[in-house]
Design goal:
This protein is an alpha+beta fold. The chain has one domain: Ubiquitin Conjugating Enzyme (Roll). It contains 5 helices and 3 strands; from the N terminus they run H-H-E-E-E-H-H-H. A hairpin with a 5-residue loop joins strand 1 and strand 2. GO terms for molecular function: UFM1 conjugating enzyme activity.
């Protein structure tokens, strides 16, 4: 079910050990440290492979995550807001990743822009509790979803490329 490239990517993401969710006090803090370490390693791996495709941060408690993700299609970079909450039953329950601005544009999406991962990702997640974390959800869930859905949405003209806004220093042309 998982191709060799995905297996290679997964092998480089540290597995997590702590079985704790947001209601588990100090154990959650330990889990959160593991989550950050895995995310940092995944980002480093992606940059080394010239495959940087998301930025993510969390609230102070690590229960609400938000940022940007992007997908390059036909040499154009399509960028989207990404957000998710950590379920109270985490890590037994995977987070529901959402791209709110794409809400209603594809059948592979639930309410509020939550992407559909039930058929392929959730059974894999369930078999790997507590070893999988946020980095794994991105690598096995959001990344493949973007790779399948974004080209289809572009082809159907349900999303269009928007030129990035130039920064004020670059736009002014002052190259001192």
């Amino acid at each position: 079910m998982v191709d060799d490239a995905t297996k290679s990517t997964l092998a480089k993401i540290p597995l997590l050990k702590t079985r704790a969710g947001p209601r588990d006090g100090d154990a959650w803090i330990l889990r959160l440290k593991e989550e950050y370490a895995a995310l940092i390693k995944y980002v480093q791996n992606n940059k080394e492979a010239d495959n940087d495709w998301f930025r993510l941060e969390s609230n102070k408690d690590g229960t609400r995550w938000f940022g940007k993700c992007w997908f390059v299609h036909d040499l154009l970079k399509y960028e989207f807001d990404v957000e998710f909450d950590i379920p109270v039953t985490y890590p037994e329950t995977a987070p529901e990743l959402a791209l709110p601005e794409l809400d209603g544009k594809t059948a592979k999406m639930y309410r509020e822009g939550k992407i559909c991962l039930t058929d392929h990702f959730k059974p894999l997640w369930a078999r790997n509790v507590p070893r999988f974390g946020i980095a794994h959800a991105l690598a096995l869930g959001l990344g493949p979803w973007l790779a399948v859905e974004i080209p289809d949405l572009v082809e159907k003209k349900l999303i269009v490329y928007n030129e990035p806004k130039a920064s004020s220093s670059a736009a002014s042309g002052s190259g001192q």
